[in-house]
Amino acid sequence: MIGKATLLEAIAGKNRGLLTTDADRQGVLAAIAQLEDRNPTPRPVEATALLEGDWRLIYTTSSGILGIDRVPLVQLGQVYQSIRTADAKVYNIAELVGVPFLEGIVSVAARFKPVSERRVEVKFERSIVGLQRLIDYRSPASFIEQIEAGQKFAALDVSIENRDQQGWLDITYLDEDLRIGRGNEGSVFVLTKG
After folding, report:
1. How many whole angstroms separate alpha carbon 10 and alpha carbon 26?
2. How far is it, in rounded angstroms, from Cα 75 to Cα 6?
3. DSSP character for 16?
4. What is the DSSP letter of 44?
5. Are 107 and 94 in contact (CB under 8 A)?
6. What is the DSSP-derived secondary structure letter of residue 45?
7. Dihedral sign computed on CA atoms, order 135, 137, 142, 147
8. Nearest to 93 by CA among 74, 103, 79
9. Are 125 and 110 in contact, with CB atoms under 8 Å apart?
């Protein structure tokens, strides 16, 4: 698909948005809008087989995610969003790299509730921040298995009960290996699967 190739070319080498200029951002957002107009899945929230799985972030405008890279001695590694549709759960996982043996992880677990054919409300429930070695982190899938088994971690592991820790996400494009979303804070997310 020409629109998809155009978007992927626009974000290539941009390190998920960390290396963009204003002109780059405008070009990427224009490519996103063109692709959204050609969304092959008109009711993405109902397309659970497509939504399910571990998605890797390839571009965002989210200052919350990109800001992690501004912490001294730490660089933002891979960022994942894992969706478990049967349980209506989503897990955001950011890997942190930098000082050897001190690689970290920042994770937030949430529940989602469909509110329209393309929007989900998200309620954040748990935050885990720690060193990958101490929590035996190997991959998003194995980490989520540990979370779902009720494991407590040797990390900052807290419940989130604040009503302010809620939001929504519109899924504006979805196919078998690409998903675009727009969040309540105005951020755009482009993720790939596989």
Report:
1. 10
2. 28
3. B
4. G
5. yes
6. G
7. positive
8. 79
9. yes
Measured between alpha carbons, how far is 37 from 139 in angstroms, rounded to an integer? 34
Q: Cα torsion at 168, 9, 53, 81 (round to 10°)? A: -50
Question: Measuring CA to CA, how many Å separate 144 from each of 66, 105, 109?
Answer: 23, 13, 9
What distance in Å separates the CA atoms of residue 32 and residue 8, rounded to the nearest whole number? 10
- Residue 102 is predicted with a pLDDT of 81
d(CA 168, CA 119): 7
Q: Are 154 and 119 in contact (CB under 8 A)?
A: no
Write out residues in the chain with pLDDT < 50, as ranges: none
Domains identified in the chain and CATH numbers: 2-193 (2.40.128.280)
- SS3 of 172, please? strand
- pLDDT at 164 (0 to 100): 64
Residue the block writes with tokens 């504006």: 172
pLDDT at 94: 94
Torsions phi, psi of 41, nearest 5?
Answer: -120, 90
Per-residue model confidence (pLDDT) at position 52: 96
Tokens matching residue 150: 């009720």
Token representation of residue 149: 């088994």
Report strand pairing: 178-183 vs 188-193: antiparallel
Which tokens belong to 85? Answer: 């549709």
Per-residue tokens: 179:
């998903």
